[in-house]
Design brief:
By secondary structure, the chain is mainly α. Among the domains are: 80 residues, Four Helix Bundle (Hemerythrin (Met), subunit A); 37 residues. Helix content is 67%, strand content 0%. It is built from seven helices and no strands. α1 packs antiparallel against α2 and α2 packs antiparallel against α3.
Length: 192
């Protein structure tokens, strides 16, 4: 077992663990922090694939900007997890959780069985192009095949930002009560 394999295994375990913890948290701030940890572990995996640009974009854009935006929204809306931990979940939600978990495990088993681990088969690393993850490759795909979704995402983000500003803006009344001056108490005026 070489160093690359150890780094891959540790990063993969951290990414899966933090993603699992992210969806199982009741506290939204803790969930966002686990998502940041998962994104950092995925960035390490991109570095191992020699996709340094994708790794930097993942850290700067998602772990930096988007997570800060999530934290601001959580703080703005004052979202809190269910503080009543004594409440038992309904039987329907419990059955749904177990059913989805079983389906995901079955899907994972089919995916693992479909991957060939023979030494004669072509590995995943050799299927990637030489310029995988480079700035030119990402730009070529983004601005040719996905130009319309890219532009639509920009408009959607602009609408979301304007909506957040409108929601957070509150009407403030700057009128002072009648008979009061600049000072809150007229009796505190001192004449020299």
């Amino acid at each position: 077992m070489n160093l690359d394999t150890i780094v891959f295994l540790v990063s993969a375990v951290v990414a899966v663990f933090s993603a699992t913890m992210m969806i199982s948290q009741r506290n939204t701030v803790a969930s966002v922090l686990y998502l940041i940890l998962s994104l950092l572990a995925q960035a390490v995996l991109y570095i191992q694939l020699s996709a340094l640009f994708l790794s930097a974009v993942l850290i700067i854009v998602y772990a930096g900007a988007i997570m800060v935006l999530f934290l601001f929204v959580v703080m703005l809306l004052n979202l809190r997890g269910n503080q009543d931990l004594g409440d038992k979940p309904s039987p329907v939600s419990r059955i749904t959780k177990y059913l989805v978990s079983i389906l995901l495990v079955v899907e994972l088993v089919f995916i693992i069985r479909g991957i060939g681990f023979d030494t004669g088969t072509v590995g995943i690393m050799t299927l990637a192009a030489d310029d995988f993850g480079s700035v030119a490759a990402v730009a070529r795909i983004l601005f040719t095949n996905y130009l319309y979704p890219f532009e639509l995402t920009g408009v959607l983000l602009l609408v979301a930002i304007v909506g957040a500003v409108v929601v957070s803006k509150r009407e403030k009344s700057y009128e002072t009560p009648a008979g009061s001056g600049n000072m809150p108490d007229d009796r505190k005026k001192v004449e020299i």
